[in-house]
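Title: Prediction job returns without error message
Component: structure pipeline
Severity: low
Priority: P3
Assignee: unassigned

Description:
Job completed but the reporter wants confirmation the result is attached to the right record. Sequence as submitted:
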Amino acid sequence: EAEQAMEKAAKALEAEPENIDARALRGAGYLREGRLDEARADAQFTLGKEPTNVPATSVLVGVLQKEGKTKEAIELLKKTTAGNPKETALRLLLIELYRRDKNIDGIETTYHELFAAEPKNLSYRTDLARFLVAFGEKDKAEHLLRETVTALPGDEKAKLVLIDFLANQRSFEQAEGALKAFIKEAPDEAELKFGLTQLYVKHQQAD
């Protein structure tokens, strides 16, 4: 597949030497082969023509990572995503670089940008909560998950994510009380009742 991509890029560049998509594609091939200078040249050429080009940015970030230049890669991604508010893939890559750099503030900021772009995406919120717990920020994680329940009122999974957090990071009693309150508010929600059963099963197993 990689060879086919390089062949495709070569044919496109033979017909149109300044084809930025083909240059980015070839740059990705060079990066896979460890030819960093050539990968950088193709990525920079494309970015010179189109500063927010996602494939070329990914290639240049890959080059910088292989050279151990994480800070430079982060700055490049910050610059590119700033002009591309709905760009998801590069923000997720930026979060990964922040994780390696142990930068929880950067992780939080980037996830909140993702929240703004996709307000109903529960996975982004739960992923940030996991990061916060991993960095010892349990209170922030709980606040975020409670805020998520409010922000996504019809999403029963959001409530169950909060319950799971309370059961694992706080206490069984807090989780049980919160879930019973949710059931009282929505007595016909079978998913919540099943969640309560699961909570009791897990608690008995833990005992």
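Comment from assignee: result matches the submitted record. The mean pLDDT is 95.
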